[in-house]
Specification:
Elements lengths: L2 H21 L15 H5 L7 H17 L10 H4 L3 H13 L17 H17 L10 H10 L12 E4 L6 H10 L4 E6 L2 H13 L6 E4 L9 E2 L2 E2 L2 E6 L34 H10 L1 E12 L8 H12 L2 E6 L12 E7 L8 E6 L5 E3 L2 E3 L2 H13 L7 E5 H6 L21 H6 L2 E2 H5 L2 H6 L3 H5 E5 L2 E4 L6 H7 L1 H26 L7 H15 L8 H26 L6 E6 L5 E7 L5 H8 L1 H27 L15 H13 L6 H38 L5 H42 L4 H21 L6
Parallel strand pairs: 1-2, 1-6, 2-3, 6-7, 8-10
Antiparallel strand pairs: 4-5, 7-9, 8-9, 10-13, 11-12, 14-16, 15-16, 17-18
Helix pairs in contact: 1-6, 1-9, 7-8, 7-12, 12-21, 18-26, 19-20, 19-26, 20-21, 21-26, 22-23, 22-25, 23-25, 24-25
Protein name: site-specific DNA-methyltransferase (adenine-specific)
GO molecular function: DNA binding; N-methyltransferase activity; site-specific DNA-methyltransferase (adenine-specific) activity
InterPro entries: D12N6_MeTrfase_N, DNA_Adenine_Mtase, DNA_methylase_A-5, DNA_methylase_N6_adenine_CS, Restrct_endonuc_T1M, SAM-dependent_MTases_sf, T1MK-like_N_sf
Length: 779
């Protein structure tokens, strides 16, 4: 079954399991579980010949009716699930997956952190990825949703249950939920979705994310808007949307020239085959006079002509567009085209003198077939937009006058050149040698930190040009050994140590029940601020190291600590073979892995073991050398199919039985091989014994650990040590960048053109001389 179809069944089962565990039998719960319509009742249907029909009648229909959940998937659809025994087996096996005892949602171990909601969103993203069709439109990438939620500044506003947030094309509701989460307090959510199955997902998503009172209606927003005040559209405080790109059927069932809601009257009618502005104008009409909104649209809306140019002109003149954020291409599911976020703000529209533009198209990472915004990309966009920071090749405030001079064309490259400048070639330097001073001046960020380093690395050649003052191979050493650079590195190391000490205090104060998301928000913002304005190092690159490590390991550790406290509990690792037998593969501890215990408490034992392993490797290398030297056609091992200790011994016994005389060389080789093999085997046994002893000592040590010991191991030895290493790597890249650039310039202009011509002539003369001696001559 295609991912766009099986997501309905998997997510609905997840939903039923969750609401059954959490709300069954609880009076006044936000979700009603009718008698006989819970997950346990679904389990009772496993193996029944009419399981699909019974799930529909006994589970889905009562649950949907009691909670106004329409458009649930059909569990008796033979076209999708097969018929007869095939359907019975498929549904029985699917239900069995959700019977796993570990899937008990009756207790949320980390209150305030929506673990299940996040898991649901994770599945949604992967379903959208695997679908590979326009069905991917049901999910807006979480990073883009977070950007929209944060640039609306809803957290800074005085919000409450009376605050309304609306998404006219809500899909699965992820964008709405991100805005609600950013608000920090309860707000009222409204959504409408054209696709019936997807609107059902949105309703379930609201419940799973603890927003059971959110209103989600199914229907076409443009032709049949569900939220109205009388005959007019209802207005909201915030409106967000990710509508279908360039919808060619937007006007089906609607007469745009006589729109009953006057959405196009003041701006112009969108073209029949391009529905982007139809959705944007619906958003503007749905906003209160002080409302704010954001809409994801393809870049075409910024520059297309004719009717769309007129709409764009009217929008700019009315001052409704506060900003535009250009996003990387291939970010959204179902399409590879680049999109942008159009930010609308009616408050202050009458006095707006410009539009703030950001071109963030270059900041992303590859994630399989798609691109994805990193944590640092998201944070930079939000910081720059909210603070209206103008950065070269990234962002600027463009006046309405300048936009008018460009005939209201808002295409971002007209105003921001985000491309990296081309590295110019200096003709004179190629002809006469020397490195252009202009190229050296371009490295002014380094010279500002280390003023005399430039004189150490470069010496004058002629006006406007310099030469390297050190050998190309010695550039890196000269940089590292320079006192100013060494002082800079020491200062940056000390700078990290200050953050490390402060963060260690914060982390060691954590107690059971804390909220991991609050913790990472506090320490990551602290790290970002700590490196703000520091020379040579990008604060967002440092921030990304922390966020990467959070996703890879620290997040799981924090959830475990929040649930169970600072406990380093070991467990046995087993592996089941093909016959179903379990095999013991040793032990492990997720929070405090064995290497941390060994490094802190048994470093001497580990050093001794490492020496033994190194000695064994040396013996192995010697054995390989002996074998290679004497394995030729006339070598001692020539007649052996494989050189092993057993074969060498057998060869010696065979010769002894036959009374054969060994040559001195052959006896020496075989004896040497036997001696090395014996030593290697003995050392191997010693290593195995030492490893077993160290493993037992480390395992026993866990029982002796105090809470303070665990905190030291996890915070100092694991978390902060890893970040220390990563951020020191960032510092190393600073020197490597300067080294690489100077070496590149030196190599580029190392040999001037006359010298190249002279060397070519010398080589040509040599070749002609060789040809003449071989009996050839050029005519």
């Amino acid at each position: 079954m295609d991912a766009s179809q099986y997501k309905d069944y998997v997510l609905v089962l997840l939903f039923i399991k969750y609401v059954s565990d959490k709300y069954a039998g609880i009076p006044y719960a936000p979700i009603t579980i009718p008698a006989g319509a819970g997950f346990k009742d679904m389990v009772a249907l496993k193996g029944k010949s009419d399981i699909g029909d019974q799930i529909n009648k006994k589970i889905i229909q009562p649950l949907a009716s009691a909670n106004k959940l329409a458009d649930m998937p059909d569990f008796n659809d033979a076209a999708k699930l097969g018929s007869g025994k095939e359907m019975v087996d498929r549904l029985t096996n699917l239900i069995a997956i959700f019977e796993d005892k570990r899937l008990d949602f009756s207790k949320n171990r980390a209150e305030g952190d929506d673990i299940l909601g996040d898991a649901y969103e994770y599945l949604m993203r992967h379903f959208a990825t695997e679908s590979g069709k326009s069905k991917g439109q049901f999910y807006t990438p979480a990073e883009v949703s977070r950007i929209i939620a944060q640039i609306l500044n809803i957290r800074q506003a005085k919000t409450g249950p009376y605050t309304t947030v609306y998404d006219p094309t809500c899909g699965s509701g992820s964008l709405l939920l991100k805005v609600a989460d950013e608000a920090g307090t309860a707000v009222t959510l409204y959504g409408q979705e054209k696709d019936s199955a997807t609107s059902g997902l949105a309703r379930m998503n609201m419940i799973l994310h603890n927003n059971p009172t959110a209103l989600i209606h199914q229907g076409n927003t443009l032709t049949d808007p569900k939220y109205k005040d009388g005959e007019a559209l209802k207005s909201f405080d915030y409106v967000v949307a990710n509508p279908p790109f360039s919808d060619k059927r937007w006007s089906t069932g609607l007469d745009p020239l006589h729109d009953p809601f006057d959405r196009f009257k003041s701006f112009g009618t969108p073209p029949a085959k391009q529905g982007d502005f139809a959705y944007l104008l619906h958003i503007i009409r749905s906003l209160k006079s002080t409302g704010k909104g954001a809409c994801i649209l393809p870049h075409g809306v910024l520059f297309r002509g004719n009717a769309e140019a007129e709409i764009r002109r009217n929008l700019v003149r009315k001052g409704y567009i506060k900003g535009i954020i250009g996003l990387p291409a291939n970010l959204f599911y179902g399409t590879g085209i680049p999109a942008c976020i159009v930010v609308v703000d009616k408050q202050g529209a009458s006095v707006r003198k410009g539009i703030f533009l950001i071109d963030a198209s270059q900041g992303f990472m590859k994630d399989g077939p798609k691109n994805r915004l990193r944590a640092q990309d998201l944070h930079k966009i939000v910081d720059v937009f909210n603070r209206q920071i103008e950065l070269t090749r990234y962002s600027r405030m463009v006046s309405i006058d300048e936009i008018e001079k460009n005939d209201f064309n808002l295409n971002l490259p007209r105003y921001i050149d985000s491309q990296t400048p081309e590295d110019r070639q200096d003709i004179e330097a190629h002809l006469r040698g020397g490195i252009p001073v202009a190229d050296v001046d371009a490295l002014d960020a380094y010279w500002a930190v280390c003023p005399t380093l430039r004189e150490t690395l470069c010496r004058p050649n002629r006006p406007g040009y310099v030469d390297l003052a050190v050998e190309k191979s010695a550039i890196k050493t000269a940089i590292y050994d320079h006192p100013e650079f060494a002082a800079f590195m020491a200062g940056m190391n000390k700078h990290f140590d200050i953050w490390r000490e402060n963060s260690a205090m914060t982390l060691k104060a954590l107690a059971t029940g804390f909220h991991p998301k609050d913790v990472i928000a506090e320490i990551s913002e602290g790290l970002l601020a700590h490196y703000a304005g520091k020379p040579l190092i990008n604060q967002y690159d440092v921030y990304q190291h922390l966020m990467d490590y959070w996703a890879a390991a620290m997040q799981d550790d924090c959830y475990a600590i929040a649930a169970d406290g600072w406990k380093a509990e070991t467990y046995r690792v087993t592996e089941t073979d093909k016959k179903g037998k379990e095999k013991d593969k040793g032990w492990a501890c997720d929070l405090v892995p064995k290497p941390l215990i060994v490094a802190r408490y048994f470093a001497g034992d580990q050093a001794t073991l490492d020496e033994m392993i190194a000695s064994k490797e040396s013996l192995t290398n010697q054995l390989n050398a002996v074998e290679e030297e004497h394995s030729g056609e006339e070598g001692v091992f020539a007649e052996m199919e494989k050189v092993t200790l057993a074969n060498v011994r057998a060869r010696l016994k065979e010769l002894a039985r036959e009374g054969g005389a060994l040559s001195e060389d052959e006896e020496g080789v075989l004896t040497e091989y036997l001696s090395l093999c014996t030593q290697e085997g003995l050392l191997g046994k010693q290593i195995a014994e030492a490893e077993k002893k160290l493993d037992a000592a480390a395992y026993a040590k866990y029982r002796e650990l105090t809470e303070a010991d665990v905190k030291t191991l996890v915070i100092d030895d694991k978390w902060l040590a890893t970040l220390d290493r990563d951020i020191h790597g960032e510092m190393d890249r600073i020197s490597q960048g300067l080294t690489r650039r100077l070496r590149e310039l030196a190599q580029r202009y190392d040999i001037p053109l006359p010298a190249v011509t002279l060397r070519v002539a010398e080589f040509e003369a040599k070749v002609n001389g060789h040809l003449e001696r071989m009996g050839f001559a050029w005519s």
